[in-house]
Amino acid sequence: MPVEEDSNAKAKKDGEVLEQFLKIGLDERTAQNVLANSKVTVNLLEVIREAEIQEGCGKATGNLLYTIKSNPQLEAAFGYLSVVGSDKFDADIFEDKCGIGIDISPDVIKVTVERVLQNNMELILAQRYRMNVGGLLGQVRELQPWADGKIVKEEMDTQLKKILGERLPEDEEKLVKKKKEKKPKAEETKAAADTPKMDSDKITPEDSNPFAIFPKPQENITVHTEIFFSDGSIWRPRNSREKLQKHLYATGGKVFTRFPPEPNGYLHVGHAKAMFVDFGLAQETGGYCYLRYDDTNPDAEKLEYIEHIQEIIGWMGWKPFKVGFDDASLFLYHTFFSNNVFECNGSDSFVLEMQITFSSDYFQELYDLAVQLIKRGHAYVDHQTSDEIKEYREKKLDSPWRDRPVAESLKLFDDMRRGMIEEGKATLRMKQDMKNDNFNMYDLIAYRIKFTTHPHAGDKWCIYPSYDYTHCIVDSLENITHSLCTLEFESRRASYYWLLEALDMYLPYVWEYSRLNVSNTVLSKRKLNRLVTENWVDGWDDPRLMTLAALRRRGASPEALNAFCRGVGITRSDNIIRMDLLEHFIRDDLNKNARRSMVVLNPLKVIITNFKDSVVEELEAKSWPEGKDGDPSSTYKVPLTRVVYIEKSDFRLVNSKEFYGLSPGKSVLLRYAYPIKCIDVIFKENTQEVIEIHAEYDQAKTTKPKGVLHWVAEPSAGVDPLKIEVRLFDKLFLSENPGELDDWLADLNPNSKVVIEDALAVPALKHAKIGDKFQFERIGYFCVDRDTTAEKLVFNRTVTLRSSYPKDLVPQS
Questions:
Q1: Given 150, 180, 515, 648, which residue is catalytic?
Q2: CA distance 187 to 291
């Protein structure tokens, strides 16, 4: 009886499908032929649904849809119909957009493949079978968009084998980026003197609005990528019109992005660019950006990092992120943002705070979807060790457990969840393509067992999802419109869309941009963690690092960092940005916002012999270069007494034409005071070390010297000036790209931090507070450090006074 019922049900279904085909104008014989081919049937039904002609159409239109032969034509038809629908259907445009009537022969495919391989021959011979064949297939697709993908893949494999021969053992090794050898010291010195240009010398912003390159949410209907499989099949994931409409209803058509840091360390300047891209795009378009903690690895994550990330994002100017809505949108957005806190802002609007989520908030949904993935035949429980997985990947072999029954994998996955299997004894793996040329499609791990307390989820789970499994699903669950990431994740794009397609979920728009690489430092969290934990630096906020906490402590402002990010732009060009370009933006900001003051780092005593001992003359000095009319803080008081101090470097025993300092018999102007003339030099006994200068001042100011010196005086006779500690910071590493050196720690700059414990400052500086910023005239820009105490002020040098970056190469932000 059950067999008879199944047979009747199939007959009924076939009858309904046949009737649908007749409705679109196919004759009965053609309709029967289509019905006999299950693949053609599925494709044609999908086209009918996309065109919204379930109730029928003209015979010409129906036969036109039937003529679609290849997968590329089918995908093009989906794209066209999902945009125009049935009401604006134009047969001529449809034929043109979908390549109707075009049949790409095997001979044409062969010639096209030969052409692509010839254009890439240098790379092919260098990387052999380790190169990304998907990129070559994509080039063929650009030249012949209507070619059969399976035939293209077979021809590509045939011609590659003809060029390269059989696979060699080294072809199974993972392609490793070549390390640069460290230059000998002599070469480094010469290279520095020659000042070679780096890639960043050519940086210019792509557009005055860097966010203009991104498509609108309503345009997310085209094929996102082509996923090439080793059997020649191709997936072309795209959103159906129903998926996109559901997504747009949930988001109100707004842009939704996310900034997804992993809480396993402090954020660095590279994250500043990521924030600028993620939060900036949302802000530019009137959309919204999540702060989402990617907390899937409890072994590396700490509450300290979670708290730091939220705090530093706020400091960077991206928190709180509030947007007003009218009352008509209330129900829609309240439904979508079920976890948000809403603040009433009057009777007809409300304010939405920046949404903060954790990947761990979705652990239950992720688990349920993993169960669905197993049921659909796209995942399995595996027992290989990490070494075995690596070995099988290199040999492109399937796991022995890959084809185990679905029911068995479901049972084992449940055992994993309930803690009944030891750590390391089982994983859940996605059933992707072990023979794929893309390493990130080799049956990636979706879940692993870890008996570790999670800093956010606690002890509820003993299995944790991987990044590759989690981030795309959570992007889809949160209705992210633009999933933005750096170029090293580009190879993961196929896996990203494979998983969402396998689960039939909404597909966000993925766009990769170049990561921010800065010279003379490291931004790898692993390397940063080692610098901190092995005490090569003084914590995560050591001003020599490029963490945001360190840059803040050094004296950089969020405005300067964001201007820098806008200046370098959002591009796909991978390059190293020179440190002095970052310093240029910091210096430009400080020049406008740092108060002026006078400090002497290495003091040399000067006695003004014709100035009375008991006299203290109070002078006015400028706090700002142009002054601020009516602002009492635009000037400060400076005492002038018989004893003043100048920099040792501002005195020479032998004068020269290019020297503007003080020499015997020569005059200079003390800034904001009087000209003085050196009349005598006092040496340390039995040495040529100058310890004191005797000078006379010109009270009438009849002398007009060229040189102007900063100085600090005793506040009164016999009283020492204010003493401060000054820390001079320089580049942490000697090489431009230390991360590529095998022994990168040996490249640390031994002079990256110089401490001057007894610098002298004007009395007005004693009121400075932690975080206050100053320009020490003729020296540089400085910030009051958190190590400051009631007994002693401590200043960090932020940047030097002059920029070494060529002005004509500075991007205009």
A1: 515
A2: 45
